[in-house]
Amino acid sequence: METILLVFVIAIVMALLYIFCRLIFSLWGFPILAYRKLKKNGLDGPSPWFPFGNLSEMKKKTINFQSSNISHDIHSTLFPFFTRWQNSFGKTFVYWLGTEPFLYIADPELLKKLSAEVTAKNWGKPAVFRRDRAPMFGNGLVMSEGKDWVRHRHVITPAFNPTNLKAMASLIVETTIKMLDNWKDSGAQEIDVEREITATTGDIIAKTGFGISDQSGRLVFEKLRSLQMTLFKTSRLVGVPFGKIMHPKETLEARKLGQEINQLFLSIIDERRKSIKGSTPQCDLLGLLLKESERGFTTQELVDECKTFFFGGHETTALAITWTMLLLATHQDWQHQLREESREVVGDNKEIDVDMLSGLNKMGWVMNEALRLYPSSPNAQRQAKADIHVSDDLSIPSGTNMWIDIVGMHHDPALWGEDVNEFKPERFKDDIHGGCKHKMGYLPFGFGGRMCIGRNLTFLEYKIVLTLILTRFSFTISPTYSHSPSVELTLRPSYGLPLALQPL
């Protein structure tokens, strides 16, 4: 009996010792080895303090960027730590989110070399973000890798072909006019256009992508917005081992919201399946996904793509329009020019011919400049799935995460000149890169094969919505507006965008 007890105690001690050693290696051993390897490969950066890496410096309290004066010089206020580290280490360095190393890149030439070395399907997504953002995106196109990414991309691409986009135009017009009629009927002199436009683009993607009603679409939108706030507006320790345990409330809330959103989309999918029995599926995004499910697309893959595109399909466009309206409200000359161009090209008709939109040249310049100053996606992330040899002095080991600072490059005077923080749409008049000294320095929709698949829908929706607004209202900035851009996965105005509207 004593022998059995002794064996049991030894087994318990050995198990605890194993767990302790694994813990020590997870928190300190493996990160230190990785740190030394990166330094050996020519990659330097701020010294980490494991297991928190550089999080303590990144989370240091800074002066709240909130002002009635509108400055477009936003990089140093959004990412003060990156600005400090750039001054010390240049535009390429390694920093640490907990025990996860990230290669920071604000050098377009390095980005060009990496793009030439690695094909789209061989780029990965940082595992730390895939785990952390699973309730929101699952293994949808934004997070999928390798063969899964190729398969998903192949299925989804037809949803955004020119024929399908043209078919969406009437729904975009109809939904936008409903919003504008509500503005006029309300008699309100001041409206938070960020809230209104975000809700309207949510209605648009609900109808055009999924064929669902305003009520169902709003419910999904509200749940996704709550999940976005839970994941990106809290001080969670992303990248720190067992970080989720340290923030149980947010972890459980994110999981709960993710499951609720899954159930909403499962109901939407089930209703669509019942409605198309014995008939031809619709050619919207959900119809294409359901068609593919017959060839092996799982139900969870369907749900993940629905979540990914519902969020991405309305958020990017809504923010592009929102920031544009801020810029036009503070630059009345450009607001007048776009209004006149809209009347000349499209007229005041409620019916908009999609083919006419290509004639809105100045609007295209303004859109490009708005996306330069305020890119909806302020950064991009990648992961090396194999060793990448960049030069004799620089090699990037397999598994290295990368953080591409899009805002940093868009506001770099070395790339754009001393007027980099000024609103000058004319810089895009004769150059699709806006006069940027490097083509990879302007990335409003990402880069390479993983560039945003829905960008043509954004162009279409942006021009239709903005044209309808400009021909029905003039607007100025409200005295209550407080300029405070913030990153909550996307780049948003922290306190909305109140504008004073005047019907025309």
Automatic annotation (TrEMBL):
GO terms for molecular function: heme binding; iron ion binding; monooxygenase activity; oxidoreductase activity, acting on paired donors, with incorporation or reduction of molecular oxygen. Its main location: membrane. Belongs to the cytochrome P450 family. This is Cytochrome P450. The chain crosses the membrane at residues 6-30. Keywords: Heme, Iron, Membrane, Metal-binding, Monooxygenase, Oxidoreductase, Transmembrane, Transmembrane helix. InterPro entries: Cyt_P450, Cyt_P450_CS, Cyt_P450_E_grp-I, Cyt_P450_sf, Cytochrome_P450_Monooxygen. PANTHER family: CYTOCHROME P450 FAMILY MEMBER (PTHR24282), CYTOCHROME P450, FAMILY 715, SUBFAMILY A, POLYPEPTIDE 1 (PTHR24282:SF15). Heme binds at C452. One of its GO terms (cellular component) is membrane. It comes from Malus baccata. Its cofactor is heme. It is found in: Membrane. It is a single-pass membrane protein.
